[in-house]
Amino acid sequence: MAPTRPNDPHAALRNVLRPLLLGVVIALMASCSSEPEPEDSPPDETAALYDPATLLQVDITMAVEDWAFVRQDKRDFTGVNMSCPKAPFPNTYQWRPASTVTINGRSVSNVHIRKKGFIGSVNSVKPSIKLKFDAAVDGQQLFGTTRMTLNNSVQDPSLMVQCLTYDLTRKSGLPAPRCNFAEVTVNGEALGIYANIEPMKKPFLRRSFGNDKGHLYEGTLSDFRDDSMVTFEAKTGDTDPTLGPIKAITAALKLPDEKLMAALEPLVDIDAFCTFWATSILIGNADSYFTKGNNYFIYFDPEQAGRGHFIPWGADATFGSAHKGAEVMGPQARPMLARRLYMSPAGQKRFLAAMSKLLAGPWNESAVSAEVTRIEALIGAAALKTPYLPAAKGGKGGATSKPYDFKTAVATVQSFIAGRRAMAKLLLDNPPEWTRKLSTKNCSDDPKTAFTAKTSGTFVTTYGTTTAKDPFAVGSGSLVMDTAGKAQTASTVGAVAGQDTKRTDRFVVELNAEVTSTKSAVRYRLWIVVPKTQATPGATIQVSKDGGGLAGAIAIVDAKTGKATPAAELRVGSLTLSKVGLQPDSAVAGSFDLTWGQVSAGEAFKACFGECFKKSKDAAACKKLCMGGK
Predict the structure, then answer these.
(1) Rounded to an integer, what distance in angstroms lies between the CA atom of residue 185 and that of residue 102?
(2) Which of the four pLDDT bands, split at 50, 70 and 90, describes residue 37?
(3) pLDDT confidence of residue 24
(4) H or E stretch including 576?
(5) Mind giving me the DSSP string for 560-575?
């Protein structure tokens, strides 16, 4: 330290300040040599897009013919054995251009739109849609995103359960898409309230997991079994298309009980899965991994050693709304992962612990009920103007059946919330044994289970003959049937025609044919349903995507018992009428060229049950018969 000068009045002050100034200089030098502070992250524009307090106004303008195509577009399952598929289900929906999309006053042009949905939510009046903002303009965004998903909620008369489900899932500590509501118009036509769901893309992965390089799969009727894992669909370019992580879980689930948990721990976040499971049971999800192997994603997070995390999707059958309050309870240990965990003492303990934790925190009846009330106030006015569109009706032409009973549906949701804790407590206090057998699939290539056909032929008959005891003794015709590339000509053909028993605006032509080969004789029944408005002599009627044209099905008939097992439904083709009269004994004649594809198990059961019940009036016997004796 420098000596002080004699009689210097400021010496003491300098002695105090000098070390302080030195410290400031050192600190400044250190700050100059360190890395600069990062700038603030830009605001997340998507937060406004999914703001739960905002009812979006979405206005779409596009060519009338393009919108008609989107509405009527269908997934083509021709050649797919729905009961035992060999690959992910094909998504054949096609994109169409929209000139402008405006959301809350902000617009972009050159957008692409397509229909979405698998089976239950498909609707031709109020279709679920996907929007792609950057399809024609590279990098184009609206509200900070290149994609939007708008779900029609036609299976949910309350319109709100998807958002309730994802909100509760996030409060349970699990990843789930953001969700709010939108009023949608296309070319000035109001379509009503939609659920605006965050797309399951890489931005979602980065927000939820902090990374996007893991494997992301979508499960559609999928499970960790050799005959069910093939429908898992890889969803990103970084995802293993050979299903490596899925196969690893499938292999682990084949191990004996004493090795199970140790094998699963590195592959699946078991505690997170048990929370996902408990949440699904608590909200009564009737169309989930646990009930149908459906509506979920699984992400294998590289920052958690590649362990799998389940993400809910398509949650429109929750909170009692879609099934009118019907209870979905019990452990629902149907799929293989839940089955093995529940039947393991250690796994069952972790599932029950997850349910207890859910009831102790995230499941707060008052808070969930208050959220229902908030949403009702937000969307109620628009919801009351939204027509009720059951998926089955809308998917086959879009007819409405009754006013949208929004208020009753909301009351059902509130009642469900109020009573759910008691149901969950029953499960916790008395965990039932799970004794249900694993579902089995017939994965053979027998035409009875994997049937597609091309047919051509003719028919001559009279109207009013569908009640004939021996359909082979009425009318005549010809039939050439091509199955699996092999064409066969029917040796015997009978034809009848008459009023469709389900709809007064349609009539049916039914052909009964026997195809004889050197080994056997197979009997087929073809139902061709024709709209009366198009039934004029010389008219050629097409199968149309909106359900306004031909419809029909093929069944294989047991010659001894007369049992008709539905095998295929009408996909494409035409029928030409040479004669047609819709009065008893009037002539009905024509020709056809039609292609048929595999029906789903549900459609097959419905058709089989209807045909059986019409003859026997014994519902219990028909149910047993059409479910294969179960």
Answers:
(1) 10
(2) very low
(3) 45
(4) strand 564-580
(5) TT--EEEEEEEEEEEE
Three-class secondary structure of residue 463 per DSSP: strand
* Separation CA 48–CA 67 (nearest Å): 27
- CA gap 604, 627 in Å, rounded: 10
Residue corresponding to tokens 């005549």: 476
Structure tokens at 51: 């703001």
Residue 371 contacts by C-beta under 8 Å, 6 or more apart in sequence?
Answer: 164, 167
535 CB contacts (<8 Å, ≥6 apart)?
507, 541, 577, 580, 582
Check residue 397 and report its DSSP letter: T
What is the value of pTM for the model shown?
0.68
| Window from 90-99, 260-269, 497-506 with minimum mean pLDDT | 497-506
Outline where 384-485 has alpha helix (H).
Answer: 391-395, 406-429
**Nearest residue to 571 via CA among 23, 21, 74, 72:** 74
Query: Between the CA of residue 108 and those of 103, 135, 258, what are the distances in Å?
Result: 9, 12, 58
CA dihedral 281, 283, 286, 292 (to 10 degrees): -40
- Using only C-alpha atoms, what is the Rg of the chain? 31
Calculate mean pLDDT across residues 215-220. 97
Closest-CA residue to 571 (of 537, 613, 542): 542
How many Cβ atoms are within 10 Å of 166's Cβ, its own excluded?
24
Contact in structure between 151 and 194 (CB atoms under 8 Å): yes
Condensed to tens digits (0 to 9), the pLDDT of residues 162-206 reads 999 999 999 999 999 999 999 999 999 999 999 999 999 999 999
**What are all long-range contacts of 372-381, with beta carbons under 8 Å and residues at least 24 apart?**
372/160, 372/164, 372/410, 372/413, 372/414, 372/417, 375/160, 375/163, 375/164, 375/181, 376/160, 376/410, 378/53, 378/55, 378/181, 379/55, 379/159, 379/160, 379/181, 379/193, 380/406
Q: Which residue has the tokens 């359909």?
A: 471
The pLDDT tens digits for 107-150 are 999 999 999 998 778 888 899 999 999 999 999 999 999 999 99
d(CA 80, CA 83): 9
CB distance 551 to 529 below 8 Å = yes
Helix (H) or strand (E) holding 132: strand 128-132
Please report the sign of the dihedral spanned by the C-alpha atoms of residue 331, residue 297, residue 147, residue 64: negative
Q: Could you tell me the two tokens for 285?
A: 């999800």
Q: 578 is written with which tokens?
A: 């040479």
Q: What is the 3 state secondary structure string of 598-619?
A: ECCHHHHHHHHHHHHHHHHCCH
Are 123 and 391 spatial neighbours (Cβ–Cβ below 8 Å)? yes
What single DSSP character describes residue 421? H
Q: What angle do helix axes 365-383 and 161-171 make, rounded to 10 degrees? A: 150
- State the greatest distance between any 2 C-alpha atoms of the chain, in Å, as a whole number: 137
Which DSSP letter does residue 384 get? T
Structure tokens of 389? Answer: 């569109």
Report pLDDT for 5.
42
Query: Rounded distance, CA 261 to CA 319, Å?
Result: 32
